[in-house]
Every structure is written in C-alpha cells, then in structure tokens.
Write a structure and sequence with these properties.
Helices cover about 55% and strands about 5% of the residues. The chain is an all-alpha fold. Strands 1-2-3 form a three-stranded antiparallel β-sheet. A hairpin with a 4-residue loop joins strand 1 (about 25-30) and strand 2. Helix 2 runs parallel beside helix 16 and helix 5 (about 95-110) packs across helix 6 (about 120-145). The protein is globular.
C-alpha cells in the first residue's frame, strides 16, 4: 500500500464482514433464531437425532429411513481406532484431551490412502469417518489416563449411547444418552465462528480434509471459543450456593471481569440453543437429586437480568456445563464434547470452501516505521 493511499476501514475481528455465501446455517442474532439447512433448531433439538443432523448438514436434506440406516451403518463401522493411534494416545495420556484430539486428527490421515483426495464425495466420507471415530479417541484417552483399559465401541448402541458406554463401561440410562444426543445437535453447526473459519482458511488453500479438521480443533481449544462451558462450571463450584450468587457476580462486574456463559458474538437476544439445555439441566438435577447446581445458575441469571439490555443473555454453554457435570463428565472433556458435535458443521464448511474458488487472504494495515536505514551489526 502506498503511503499516499487513504487508510482503509479496519474491521477488527472481521466483525459483520461477510466472506462468502453458505447453505449450512442461518443465525438471526437480534431475534435469537438458528436455522440448520432451513430447519429451525427448536424442531431439530426436540424431534431429530444427531445421526439425522449429520446427514442433514452434510447432504443438505433430512434422510429417509433407508438413507438414515445406511449412514448409521457407516458411522458404526468407523468407530474403531487402530493400534498406532491407541499407542499415541497412551504416550500422551497425561496431556490435555484437546492436545490428544489434535494429534490424533493428524494421525488419522496416515491410515487413509485417499487422504489427499479433496473431491466432495471423499470429503463427505472422511467427515463421516471422523464423526464416528472422535468419541472413541476421547473416551480411550480418558480411560488410559485413569489407569483403565479402553473399551471397544459397541455397534449395537447409538452414537450418543456408545460414547457414554466407552467412558464408563456401562450401558447408559436412555435419558442420559438422549441428553447427550440433544447436546450434540445443539453444537453441530453455528456459522463461520473461529474454528469454522480456520477450517475454511485451510480448505481455501486446498489442504487435505484432515489438515482442515486439525486447524479447526486447534482453534476450538482456545478458551475464548470452546472453553465457556468449562468456565461456567468452575464459576458454579466457586459460588457454592445460590445465596452467594449476587455477591460473586457483583465482585466480577466491579473488577471488570466477565461472568462466564453470558453474551455471544452474534446473539443479542436469548441464545435459542440455551432454552433446550436449561430445561434439561433442571430435569437432570431433579432426577439425580442434585438440584443445587441448577439453582446456583438460575440465581446467577436473575442477578444478571439488568444486563440483558446490553445483550448479555445466557448462551448455550451456560447450561451445558451443569449437564456435563451432573453426568460425571470431567471438565476438561467439555471442549472435546463440543468438537464431537461440531464435526458435521466443520465438514460442510470445508466442502463449501472446496467448492469456492480463490484463497482466503485478508490484509493487515501496516502501522509501523518506514524505510529505516540498515546499520551493520558493528554499528548497532
């Protein structure tokens, strides 16, 4: 850029900058509306299964019985991990689960002879493969780090049932599995967020599918993106009882801190996904005889009501943390759970970017010194 050219308008964080068109999802932040491929999230969360959502996002339409059965069979047949991946997980058993997930995602390409094929059909195939195998990686690492043997996938169980089974070794309560299924649906897709954008940037270079997914997982690990649910549960434990909620929130606000689980980069109204998990968190707490955690979160929402006019409403992660905690899922598995749900969303973003021409290459406005004279090292 010439020194004489006018300064460009800088859009910090690319906020409200549209980089392309998409058919994956629609978000109305002012109205609190979320659409997957034309379908309202309220209908999908209350009526569909995660397997249906996987098919919908990747293929563009809801499956009929035959199509769903075929996809279900494909997912169940791709759940196992090989000895090489298991060996890497063992060697990384003391690492953060997201580090393990990122490393294993790269390693998955080694066992795929068609990994360099970026055709749409192959991208779909790999997307389904990763959707199927990710829960096995997460559960295997969790058991190994706790001195337990990994549990082989059970192909008689649904996607959500099988994940809970591989974690504990016990067939889960159908209500718990249904809850995880709904959680995966709610996290399946959400526009060009940071991790989806990272996947698209990689795909725009025509990187292979596994590389694009690795970029997405690496980005999701950041606490400003994937770590909100974990932060909410830590906050809840610190509060301890609903009577302490007001003082806790006041101290956070007075110090300029952020109350975890409130506000969203897009939503300026109630996050439509949060409605479903709020109801589920209450029902789960009552069923397990542990209403305490919901009561604390409810108390926090009441204290935060005056800030709603600023768009600070509870987001989906505000209630997700309590659900995971009540299901005895460790806090550092909250982000991997997010990743498990988001695979179909990332898949369609990668596919759309493969179909688009041109590399994603934004610019930075240079704001430093110009034409500095070079001095030999002996003169510095």
């Amino acid at each position: 850029m010439s020194e004489k050219e006018p300064k460009p308008e800088i859009k910090k964080g690319l906020k409200n900058v549209y980089i392309d068109k998409t058919k994956s999802s629609f978000i109305d932040g002012k109205q609190g509306k979320l659409i997957y491929r034309g379908y309202n999230i309220h209908d999908l969360a209350s009526k569909a299964t995660f397997e249906e959502i996987v098919y919908l996002l990747v293929n563009g339409n809801l499956p009929n019985k035959s199509e769903l059965n075929q996809l279900d069979l494909e997912l169940r047949s791709n759940r196992k991990i090989n000895k090489e991946i298991l060996s890497v997980i063992q060697s990384m058993k003391d690492s953060h689960p997201m580090d393990v997930l990122r490393t294993c995602m790269s390693l998955l390409s080694a066992s795929d002879s068609s990994s360099e094929d970026i055709s749409i059909e192959n991208a779909k195939r790999i997307g389904f493969r990763i959707t199927a195998v990710l829960p096995t990686i997460v559960a295997s690492h969790h058991r190994l780090r706790n001195g337990k043997e990994p549990i082989d996938p059970n192909d008689k169980l649904t996607h959500a049932e099988n994940f809970l089974y591989m974690l504990s070794g016990e067939i889960p309560d159908p209500r718990d599995a249904k809850l995880i299924d709904k959680d995966l649906i709610l996290h399946a897709e959400h526009g060009v967020n940071a991790s989806s954008f990272a996947a698209r940037v990689a795909a725009s270079t025509r990187a292979d599918f596994y590389s694009c997914m690795t970029a997405a997982i690496a980005t999701l690990k950041g606490p400003l993106h994937g770590g909100a649910a974990e932060g909410v549960m830590k906050m809840t434990l610190e509060i301890g009882s609903e009577e302490n909620a007001s003082d806790y929130v006041s101290k956070i606000r007075e110090s300029g801190g952020r109350v975890m689980g409130f506000g969203h980069a897009v939503y300026k109204a109630v996050d439509p996904r949060s409605v479903h998990l709020k109801d589920e968190a209450k029902a789960l707490g009552d069923r397990l005889g542990q209403p305490k955690w919901f009561s604390i979160l409810e108390a926090v929402t009441k204290v935060m009501e005056p800030y709603a006019r600023r768009g600070l409403y509870p987001n989906v992660d505000f209630w997700a943390g309590a659900v995971y905690y009540l299901l005895e899922i460790p806090e550092d598995l909250f982000i991997p759970l997010f990743a498990m749900g988001r695979i179909p969303g990332w898949t369609i973003h990668i596919i759309e970017q493969y179909e688009s021409k041109g590399i994603l290459r934004p610019r930075l406005y240079y704001d430093g010194p110009m034409d500095v004279e070079y001095k030999p090292i002996e003169d510095r």
